[in-house]
Specification:
This is Pimeloyl-CoA dehydrogenase small subunit. With 371 residues, the protein is an alpha+beta fold. 53% of the residues lie in helices and 15% in strands. The chain has a 4-stranded mixed beta sheet with strand order 1-4-5-8, with helices on one face. A 4-stranded antiparallel beta sheet has the order 2-3-7-6, with no helix packed on it.
């Protein structure tokens, strides 16, 4: 099996890397965070018009590059290196992934809008009582009216559309009777409570009260298998972002260990620090390998197990690398002024997004025992 990137994938990575290095440094990012919007519209426009990365995983028929999960992996790792705030994951990977899977007129209508940067999608699937279980749904769609509450919906405040799961039948935790909807974010009856996450992105508690939903808004009627696939694809993309975050955490810690002096010598000269840095490097490399494996298995029967293996490994790596980066830096590792603390925050959030280590270990066990 060839694990080398194609020429097009390499060009995609290099162009995005150069843009972020030149225009998205840490101080610029922090300025966006302080503005409180959770993203920078100008950067999103540049992603669409200057770089064209929003078209990477879409078919040429829709104006894309004809790529897929590997292209998302390439993009997400580079976004992780710069801890980018913009909604690539929710819009391109999740929203775009749902539209590609459903196809038809709605995909033909909205995917070009995603590529152009005009359509932005927020994923409203998780509820306060549901933890990481996608089938635990109390939001209901009855008589064409949507009612319920979705929690921690990232980028809902700047979304044009909401991708929502709703129960059309069955009990709260049944695997059947769950529909997938795509509705305008400004529809009557939708209210939000917006806030910033510890990482600096925007998130919202979204409430639906008698929101009118027509047949055109229903992407899939019995949608849980589709939703699980979309979340698996998003989880692998998130793992790729984590790899970018962890590579920077290790690199910055290695550089600091060469500069920081203790007892008249650089702390990187002490064997205990060298061993710790090597352990961090090994965790990063294993996370990269597991992420690539899961990406390549997204279209196989082993998809769910491979995704859970990768997410569990990446979650452990995020904790180990992040905590050791902060420990080696000392107190300054958690200050607002130093970038490493913000990378640590992002790694900590990724550790639990789309399922914690324990959740995915349990899921992997159940899948393999069932097999």
């Amino acid at each position: 099996m060839d694990f080398n990137f194609t020429e097009e994938q390499t060009m995609l990575r290099d162009s995005l890397s150069r843009y972020l290095a030149n225009t998205y440094d840490f101080d610029t990012r922090q300025k966006t965070v302080r503005e409180g919007k959770g993203w920078n519209p100008a950067v999103w426009t540049a992603f669409a018009e200057e770089l064209g990365i929003l078209c990477a995983p879409f078919s040429e028929a829709h104006g894309g590059l004809g790529g897929g999960a590997v292209e998302n992996m390439v993009v997400m790792e580079e976004l992780g290196r710069a801890i980018v705030l913009e909604p690539y994951l929710s819009t391109v990977v999740i929203g775009g992934g749902a539209l590609k899977a459903v196809g038809g007129a709605i995909a033909d209508d909205l995917i070009p809008g995603i590529i152009a940067g005009h359509v932005r999608i927020a994923f409203a699937a998780y509820e306060p009582q549901g933890r990481f279980h996608l089938n635990d749904v109390t939001t209901t769609l009855k008589g064409g009216q949507l009612n319920g509450h979705k929690a921690v919906v990232e980028h809902a405040s700047n979304a044009t559309h909401l991708l929502v799961t709703a129960r059309t039948g069955g009990a709260q935790r049944d695997t059947g009777g769950i529909a997938l909807l795509l509705i305008p974010a400004d529809a009557a009856g939708i209210t939000r409570r917006d806030y910033l996450t510890v990482h600096g992105t925007s998130a919202s508690e979204v409430y639906f009260e008698n929101v009118a939903v027509g047949d055109a808004h229903v992407l899939a009627a019995d949608a849980l298998p589709l939703v699980e696939r979309i979340v698996d694809e998003a989880t692998v993309a998130l793992c790729a972002e984590a790899c970018g975050v962890l590579k920077v955490l290790h690199a910055q810690t290695l550089d600091y260990a060469k500069q920081r002096k203790q007892f008249g010598k650089a702390i990187g000269d002490f064997q205990v620090i060298q061993h710790r840095l090597v352990d961090m490097f090994m965790e990063v490399e294993q996370a990269v390998s597991m992420t690539m494996m899961a990406t390549l298995k997204l279209d196989s029967d082993e998809r769910a197990a491979a995704v859970s293996m990768a997410k569990a490994k990446v979650g452990k790596a995020a904790k180990f690398v992040g905590q050791n980066a902060v420990q080696i830096h000392g107190g300054i590792g958690i200050t607002q002024e130093l970038a490493v603390g913000h990378y640590f925050k992002r790694a900590t959030l990724i550790e639990n997004q789309f399922g914690s280590v324990d959740f995915h270990l349990s899921r992997y066990e159940n899948l393999t025992l069932a097999a």
